[in-house]
Design a protein that fits this description.
The complex is a heterodimer of chains A (157) and B (573).
Chain A lengths: L1 E9 L4 H10 L5 E8 L5 E9 L2 H13 L3 E6 L5 E12 L5 H10 L3 E5 L3 E8 L1 H11 L4 E6 L3 E4 L2
Chain B lengths: L2 H11 L5 E3 L6 H10 L3 E3 L3 H15 L3 E5 L3 H15 L4 E7 L15 H5 L5 E4 L6 H13 L5 E7 H5 L23 H13 L3 E5 L1 H5 L3 H11 L3 E3 L14 E4 L6 H9 L2 E5 L5 H4 L10 E6 L13 E4 L2 H10 L7 H13 L11 H12 L4 E4 L3 H9 L8 E2 L10 H11 L5 E6 L9 H7 L5 E6 L4 H10 L35 H8 L2 E5 L2 H13 L4 E6 L25
Classes of the chains: A alpha+beta (157), B alpha/beta (573).
The complex binds thiamine diphosphate (TPP).
């Protein structure tokens, strides 16, 4: 099952390697990982999306918690939370397809941030299902490049 | 103060009375301060020896062991010792030199990314990049190593940091948001556990190394006595409960006693205390203690429900939780259960056959002569299991062995460290002829530092434990397990010189003892054992007793890997 794990960690070198090590030692591939400072600049939040056996991931979360540089860990699986991801996507366009692409952009409330004769660069944010949907819709036109931030998440309330 | 001075100051403040290590280019500044400081420093002959010695010192004394090595190869030589300490939760601070800060990452001479290498085998580690942080980091290192579930902490100090100065003082306390060990067990959980214990018909306590680490042996004995609960221990739990007590079941697991394993398979309540359900203990985990509810007391939340399901977890310090538990328990009557166990004990005692000098016999004699008052370290293999089975441990910190990692070559340097920490004690290393060769160079360290360790080499001419598996599970094909000079002979079997006193063995351990400045004697008959042991015990020298033992003796009972604890092999027949 897919888990979204949020960890508050000391904003220090080496922390990322320690956290990544707990997953890589088990041969888990991290789907996405996003890191940034929190309201307290000495603390970073890492949001990790990973697929794996529930019991194994429970153990991983406990072990994350045990790391000296980790302050708090939450697994959002089954919890009430909001999540977002931002993508930048360069899609091939020409006179014929431009209009259709613009329509898709509008439906998904995405934004055009650059436009050239043969391509358009689009910025979109949303939950993973929304982001996946816009990528799917644009794929037939030819995606030249795609960059995703990885998911960030926060508990509701 | 300079970085190197701050380090030595931290040793003084943390009451470190001995440090083990080895010098080199990146730690010259530290060694220069050591030279002037009057600190007791023991120069080992290999950095691995230094790490194991610090570990043995820590296990014998309960204090934090400290070792120092230079950058690159010095640091990588510590790795096995650090991993050994990590697996067995031993408090250790390892200090390594590092190339100067500006050269890090450039493949400088003797550079190794030792914090990267040791990340998965340390409780925590630090690369010091700023001299102002050094005092705090050292304080944290000692604190982290020795609190909660202890473990090794490595501090990597670049050469320029050792020479840089700061006004920051060594702090008296630490404040870490991410590290706050919890010692107090949840009182509600403890009360529930007490109820469950009083309701049980056939309870068993399964005690691990955590009891010894938390100094909780007295509480364990009180609980067992009050509630009438028999106690089995893990390998590292030996000594946490007196094996001479009527309630003792000895060790459980792969080479546990038959009665301990039968009791665990029959129990209706397993109380795990400072133990972690290792696969060498549980055998096939789905068939482990099939009728039991489980109470698990451990300071480390990640130990709980890692391998088995637990009905009542109590996270906290074993000593504190047990003390609280005792208060909540009334005297229980478990006599019918104890009677049943008594019958098993009579029916299935640990035993061994006749024929030549038996290693088990040697260990029994060591017990008889020391009355259980020695510190026993072991190497790994059959020697380790026989030392666990046939010596009766009655006090904590008297059995010192690499349980989790199973490191051959651990015993001698660990004995050396234990002896350095407990000068008045008799310290034995029970060794195999294979393992002892892995850190034999530390004989020099023992001799020069007047550490009169007694080394009992159970010389079976082979890598006995591996050979045993080959005999049982690989059709007797002794692939690369025969160490004697002649090597394997034909399809199966070992050829030994008819007259064991000639030298079918290489090396000649007695000559080796002489070369290192130690005493040595070779024996091969039952009648020689006690006199040789007496002489060694009376001697103030480092001493080797090489016992030429039955080459194909096996460790029984044995639960094959992956089998359930009911499926014990009891002999070759
Ligand atoms: C460093 C290391 N290498 C390999 C092993 C695998 N191993 C486990 S027991 C054993 C044989 C040990 O032989 P010896 O020291 O002679 O002891 P015996 O079993 O004969 O008592 C080996 C090779 C190990 N535990 N540690």
């Amino acid at each position: 099952m897919k888990h979204t794990i949020s960890a508050l960690v000391e904003n220090k070198s080496g922390v990322l390697a320690r956290i990544a090590g707990l997953f890589s030692a088990r041969g888990f591939n991290i789907d996405s990982l996003a890191v940034g400072e929190t309201q307290d600049t000495a603390i970073s939040r890492m949001t990790i999306v990973v697929r794996g056996d529930d019991a194994v991931l429970e153990q991983v979360c406990k072990q994350l918690n045990k790391l000296v540089d980790v302050i708090k860990v939450q697994d959002f699986a089954g919890k009430d939370f909001v999540d977002r991801e931002l993508i930048l996507l360069k899609v091939s366009t020409d006179g014929k397809t431009r209009h259709e692409v613009l329509q898709i952009v509008e439906i998904f409330r995405a934004k055009i941030i650059d436009i050239k004769a043969k391509s358009m660069t689009i910025e979109a944010t949303g939950s993973d299902s929304k982001v996946d949907a816009i990528i799917d819709m644009l794929r037939p036109f030819g995606i030249k490049e795609l960059a995703r931030t990885g998911k960030i998440a926060i508990a509701r309330g | 103060m300079k970085g190197a001075e701050i380090l030595i100051e931290s040793f003084r403040k943390e009451k470190v009375d001995v440090v083990f290590g080895y010098p080199g280019g990146s730690v010259l500044d530290i060694f220069d301060i050591i030279y002037k400081s009057g600190l007791r420093f023991i120069l080992t002959r290999h950095e691995q020896g230094a790490a194991h010695a610090a570990d043995g010192y820590a296990r014998a004394t309960g204090k934090t062991g400290v070792c120092i090595a230079t950058s690159g190869p010095g640091a990588t030589n510590l790795v096995t010792g650090i991993a050994t300490a990590y697996m067995d939760s031993v408090p250790m601070v390892a200090i390594t030199g590092q190339v100067p800060t500006r050269m890090i990452g450039n493949d400088a001479f003797q550079e190794a990314d030792i914090t990267g290498i040791t990340r998965p085998i340390t409780k925590h580690n630090y690369l010091v990049k700023d001299i102002d942080e050094l005092p705090r980091i050292l304080k944290e290192a000692f604190y982290i190593a020795s609190t909660g579930r202890p473990g090794p902490v490595l501090v990597d100090i670049p050469k320029d940091i050792q020479n840089a100065s700061t006004d920051n003082k060594y702090p008296d306390s630490v404040e870490m948001r991410g590290y706050k060990p919890n010692y107090e067990g949840h009182i509600q959980q403890i009360k529930k556990a007490a109820e469950m214990i009083m309701a049980a018909q056939r309870p068993v306590i399964y005690a691990g190394g955590g009891v010894i680490i938390s100094n909780g042996s007295e509480e364990l004995a009180k609980l067992a006595g009050k509630a009438g609960i028999p106690v089995t221990t893990t390998l590292l739990g030996l000594g946490s409960f007196p094996s001479t007590d009527d309630l003792s079941l000895g060790m459980l697991g792969m080479h546990g006693t038959k009665y301990a394993n039968l009791a665990v398979q029959d129990t209706d309540l397993l109380i795990a205390v400072g133990a972690r359900f290792d696969d060498r203990v549980t055998g096939k985990v789905s068939e482990f203690a099939p009728h039991a509810k489980v109470i698990h007391i451990d300071i480390d939340p990640t130990s709980i429900r890692k391998n088995v399901n637990v009905d009542i977890p109590v996270v906290g310090d074993v000593k504190k939780v047990l003390a609280e538990l005792i208060k909540n328990i009334k005297k229980c009557d478990t006599q019918p259960w104890l009677n049943k166990i008594g019958r098993w004990k009579k029916e299935y005692p640990l035993s061994y056959g006749k024929g030549g000098l038996k290693p088990q016999f040697v260990i029994e004699k060591i017990y008889e002569l020391t009355k259980g008052d020695a510190i026993i370290t072991t190497e790994v293999g059959q020697n380790q299991m026989w030392a666990a089975q046939f010596y009766k441990y009655t006090r904590p910190r008297t059995f010192i062995s690499s349980g989790g990692l199973g490191t051959m070559g651990y015993g001698l340097p660990a004995a050396m460290g234990a002896q350095a920490g407990c000068p008045g004690k008799l310290v034995f290393d029970i060794a195999g002829d294979g393992s002892i060769q892995m850190n034999i160079q530390e004989l020099t360290t023992c001799v020069l530092n007047k550490l009169p360790v007694k080394i009992i080499i159970l010389n079976n001419g082979c890598l006995g434990m591996v050979r045993q598996w080959q005999e049982l599970f690989y059709g007797g094909r002794y692939s690369s397990t025969i160490l004697n000079a002649k090597g394997p002979d034909g399809e199966k079997g070992i050829t030994f010189c008819e007259e064991n006193r000639c030298h079918p063995y290489l090396p000649d351990f007695i000559k080796l003892a002489g070369a290192f400045g130690a005493e040595g004697v070779r024996i091969s008959k039952d009648s020689e054992v006690v006199p040789a042991l007496k002489k060694a015990i009376e001697s103030d020298k480092t001493y080797i007793i090489e016992c030429i033992v039955d080459p194909e003796e096996n460790v029984f009972p044995m639960v094959p890997a992956g089998a359930s604890l009911n499926e014990m092999i009891e002999s070759m027949a």
